[in-house]
Amino acid sequence: MEKIRERGWVKLYRKMLDNEILFDPNALVVFIWLLLKANDKGQKAIGRKWASKELHMREGTFYDALHRLEKKFQMVVLTTGKATIKYTTVTIRNWRFYQYGNRLANNQPTISQHSYIIENKEEEPLNVKKTKELKEKAHSLIGK
Predict the structure, then answer these.
(1) Full residue range of the structural domain in which residue 91 is found
(2) Do 42 and 95 form a contact (C-beta atoms < 8 A)?
(3) Other CB atoms closer than 10 Å to residue 140's CB: what's the count?
(4) Does residue 8 sit within a domain?
């Protein structure tokens, strides 16, 4: 098995309960698997045969779920290189939305983070503005 991030986590919002993907179990499993396997740029190179085997799915079931993620749910972008058809690169849309790089593992901000937020309440740093924009885009994608 390839070495990916051994630590860390992705986050799922309860708003997903309002998204149609919840009622498509195969697409949901493939999407969560992609979230867990993606690199730090939100991409994963996959081969249909080995990916479906890893997920204990038929190849056709995996392929159909992956294409629903792209076309119906618009949660991923699929790219197949012309030089090879052995793999497809999957890019997760709004990848950063599913990451939480500046928090501790226990999900509590540090004292210095609190101080920074309080001291700079008037002026939001650029990264906070970008985070808010990404959250808004993600909310629109999941139906809220």
Answers:
(1) 14-141
(2) yes
(3) 10
(4) no
Residue 9 lies in a domain: no
If one counts the domains in the chain, the total is 1
CATH code (residue 118): 1.10.10
Long-range interactions of 133-136: CB distance < 8 A, separation 24+: 134/94, 134/96, 134/97, 135/97
Give per-residue pLDDT as tens, 105-127: 444 444 444 444 444 444 555 55
Question: pTM (2 decimals)?
Answer: 0.64
pLDDT per position as a tens digit, 65-84: 999 999 999 999 998 876 56
Torsion sign across C-alpha atoms 42, 54, 86, 25: negative
Average pLDDT, the chain: 76
- In this structure, are residues 103 and 57 in contact, taking their beta carbons and an 8 Å threshold? no
d(Cα 57, Cα 29) in Å, to the nearest integer?
10
Please give the C-alpha separations between residue 52 and each of 15, 62, 75, 81, 129, in angstroms, as whole numbers: 28, 6, 19, 20, 39
